[in-house]
Structures are given as C-alpha cells and as structure tokens.
Amino acid sequence: MSSTPTATATEPMPNRPLTLGHSPDPDDAFMFFGLAKDRLDTGGLRFEHILQDIQTLNERATRGELDISAVSIHAYAHVSDKYALLPSGASMGDGYGPMLVSQRNLTRDEIAGVRIAVPGRMTSAFLALQLWLGKPASDFDHIVVPFDEIFQAVREGRADVGLIIHEGQLTFANEGLQCCADLGRWWGEQNDGLPLPLGGNVIHKRFTPADRRRISGILTASIRYSLDHRAEAVQHALQYARDMGSDLADRFVGMYVNHWTLDYGDKGRESIRRFLGQAFERGLIPHRQELEFVV
C-alpha cells in the first residue's frame, strides 16, 4: 500500500483552508451544519468541506491526503500511523448497527455459505461481519456493491444476503426483505453493552498536539450547535437524504448524532480498542493498534 511520508508534528498551521472530508450523508451534513454555514467562531481558521463516499475517504486516508477526515474505524487500523482519532464526530451503534438482510430468514451457518453483498472491504460493517461469522474475508463468498445498490443486488439474485448500512437499516422492510442479524446488537451482547464503533473523525499527525485540540474544539462546537438547532440542521441535512422525508431523516440523524457523537468518552475508546483488538487476534488486520486519541 503506497503512502506519503508522515510529516512531523511540529509544522505550523497552514495558511490555507483545512481540508475536511466527510460523506454526503444526512448525519455528516447535520454535524457540520454550523461550520458549513459560518455560524461558529473558528478563530480565523477556514475549512474546505470535501464531500465523498466513505470508501473514497478511507482510501484517501491511507495516502494521508486530507487534514481532517471521517473514516471507518476498520480503516483506522490502516492509517493510525498518519492520523489521531478525534473525540467527537464518531458514529456508534448503540444496540443497533449494520444489518444482514435477505428475502428469507437465514441462520448464521446458512449466511456463511451464500453470497453476501457488502458496501466496501474497509468499512467497519465488513470487519464486524468477519467477527460475527468467525471467518476472514477469504473464507466466504462476497461481492462489493455500492451501499445504495445492495437492495437491488439482493432482489436481482446477484447476492443472497445484503450487508446494509446508512438509512437502509430503517427501510429494508419496504424492500420486502427480512433482517437476519443486527451486528450492532450482537456486538453489544458480546461486549458488556458497549456500542459498535463504526466511523470516526481523524486529524493528521502533522499538526501539533495543541493545534489538534484547537481544531477538535471547533468540530465539537459544530456538532453541539446542530444539536441545539436541530430543526434547522435537519432541514439542511435533507438535501443529502436520498429521498428520505424529514421524519425519516430526523430519525436517522438521531441514530448517529447523539451524546456519543459529542464525545464518545472512555466507553467509546474501550469499544474501539476491543473492536480492533479482536480483529487483530483473529488475523483480520495486520498489526495490533497503538491507538492515539486527541483528548
């Protein structure tokens, strides 16, 4: 895997907008509403919002391209040499998470023997699937499908099961599909009720620790502003809601922008340690993580 050399942590703050990568999804749009609309005092710092799907952001993070970015927690295992985890902006599945859906109810053993459509190999959903099956990716049949085309892949028979993320967790029944397993619920049952860590915001280690904390404070303020101005922020997020109505968009935002998002705290950090630790122990990621959190 190619990468750019990691810069030192003593570089001055650049005299340019800081690149901020996040997905064009309603939860991310909601989080950064205050920042995008210039409602916050940033102390003169400017941010360039770069909207790309999470798989693209994961890949860009492996090259260290963006100053700040949303990434899958799974992907963080491959970029922890370049980035530190920010305490806010995380997506935690608290009793819910990625789901396995099919046209009929299937057991775990049955799912292990059929073709599964997955939304990307670096997604946390895909890592959770491997932990749930107790198998590495090489040991089960899967195809990568854009997350918003997984329902279609299952209906057309290109896959027997779909691993769904985002708003599909709320709409699968409308597609005539059944939930065979909720990986977030399973994770919590196996890990003392901890949430399943799905996504997080990271900042490049080229910035000094003091600058990381400064930027972190601004991003946290944006999330707090959105939570305090919920109706207006949801209205802003609707432009990214892929035909969701306002009620469904508000429900989806509430699943992934909540108290965990402001600061996932000790429980969130423990959940990330367990998630990546178990993945390493099962040979699913290349090395045990030296996790670095901005606090």
- Class computed from helices, strands and strand pairing: alpha/beta
CATH architecture designation of the largest domain = 3-Layer(aba) Sandwich
Provide the CATH superfamily of the largest domain. Answer: Periplasmic binding protein-like II
Q: Flag low-confidence runs.
A: 1-9
Number of strands: 11
Distance between the termini: 30 Å
Largest β-sheet summary: 6 strands, mixed
How do the helices and strands follow one another from N- to C-terminus?
A: EHHEHEHEEEHEHEHEHEHEHHHHH
The third-level CATH topology of the largest domain is D-Maltodextrin-Binding Protein, domain 2
Q: What proportion of the residues is helical, as a percent range?
A: 25-40%
Structure characterization notes:
By secondary structure, the chain is of the alpha/beta class. The chain folds into 2 domains: 18-92 and 196-281, D-Maltodextrin-Binding Protein, domain 2 (3-Layer(aba) Sandwich); 99-190, D-Maltodextrin-Binding Protein, domain 2, CATH 3.40.190. The chain is 39% helix and 17% strand. The protein has 14 helices and 11 strands. α6 (124-133) links the parallel β7 and β8. α6 (124-133) crosses α9 and α10 (209-228) crosses α11 (230-237). The chain is globular, with a radius of gyration of 19 Å.
